[in-house]
Specification:
The chain is α/β, with parallel strands linked by helices and 440 residues long. It has 14 helices and 21 strands. It has a six-stranded parallel beta sheet, sandwiched between helices. The radius of gyration is 22 Å and the shape is globular.
Length: 440
Amino acid sequence: MTAPKKLFIKTYGCQMNVYDSERMAEALGGEGYVETKTADDADMILLNTCHIREKAAEKVYSELGRLKQLKVAKPDLKIGVAGCVAQAEGKEIMRRQPAVDLVVGPQSYHRLPEMEQKARGGAQVIDTDFPEEDKFEKLKRRPKAKRGPTAFLTVQEGCDKFCAFCVVPYTRGAEVSRPADRILTEARDLVERGVREITLLGQNVNAYHGAGANGDLTLAQLIWELDKVDGLERIRFTTSHPNDMMDDLIEAHGTCKKLMPYLHLPVQAGSDKILKRMNRSHTADSYLRLLERIRAARPDILISGDFIVGFPEETEEDFQATLDLVEEVKYGTAYSFKYSTRPGTPAAERPQVDPAAADDRLQRLQALLTRQQREIQDSMVGREVSVLFERPGRFEGQMLGKSEYLHAVHVGNCGRAAGDLARVRIVASRTNSLAGELID
Ligand code: 5AD
Ligand code: SF4
């Protein structure tokens, strides 16, 4: 028997890339690969890249420059680039770094085993097509492999919104939803392997409209189908666009017990002038009214968001409108970024904000968001939450898990296993986690 080959995948960027990396690892498992945690002993290295911000491509090239050295000691080592940088850069990657054997765009992962074989044979292979098929359907699985209690499941890819700052519509292509039966089959398989919580993923997940037995399903209808899966205890979804927050989805937040009270709903900015220039097609006010309706359905829901500061032509007054909106919403968690120019997107051509002013705004926004996050976390002390335990903590007998609000919770002398759900009383709030005690 030949020894298994070792695969090292380095994942950058979003949760969809985490899911893709898992599926690529499973597919290459069929080619005799097992995953390793270090690049040094790998027979194949895959960089699963992200192109959303900053000089992402440059970072990939410098990483590739380092990895190339490993080939000196191990000439059979294969190096691949996957993800959105692969999609955006294509052939250019091999031109600039000839040590790369394989370049594969996000829509072509099902062809990876075949590409790997060609690369083993000494060819340089590249595939960045946008095929018409569901790549996940064609990616091999290892159905019996045991899993941890939480999993991602991509249900939708691509985006048709064309926000003026964003590369996603170009790198991931148009919106495509996976058929519901495939998602349900995959969810049942995950549950059989130990999963208790599934996060449905999509760049614009609430625009989901996958085929069902009697026509297309909305995301809420898909969630209700998943609600029937025995053994699945929790459902989450991310990321949503305010304009696709349909009535049935809002209602599900109030009525579906498995749907967790957490919603990531990016607003990006608080000034209507900037929102318009971002091509967001919602206003600050329509966003706030939408949140009112969501909170009416589920009053304790924790809201999370994304923000961009320093978007072209953002004035201090525009930025103040973002701070005002944040004050009003009270975010439980948030991600904020300085605008970064993405070549090929409409905003790249516009007058840019002074970088020092943008830095200063980012700091002020983050200070406010951190304060809000901390206040909401502190307000959990004394409350009862449900915790899904995921793994042992640093201390003997301690277990770590997440509350329904996605707060990290640790419980000492726990006596529970990964995958158990328990009622927990929160007794203290720490920097990035809560301490709790079991309620029995
Ligand atoms: N610059 C800064 N942030 C960006 N995002 C997307 N494109 C850019 C960009 N060019 C942020 C948005 C989005 C998140 C995934 O990344 O806030 O919601
Ligand atoms: Fe990018 Fe906007 Fe689509 Fe989100 S909704 S992926 S920010 S274009």
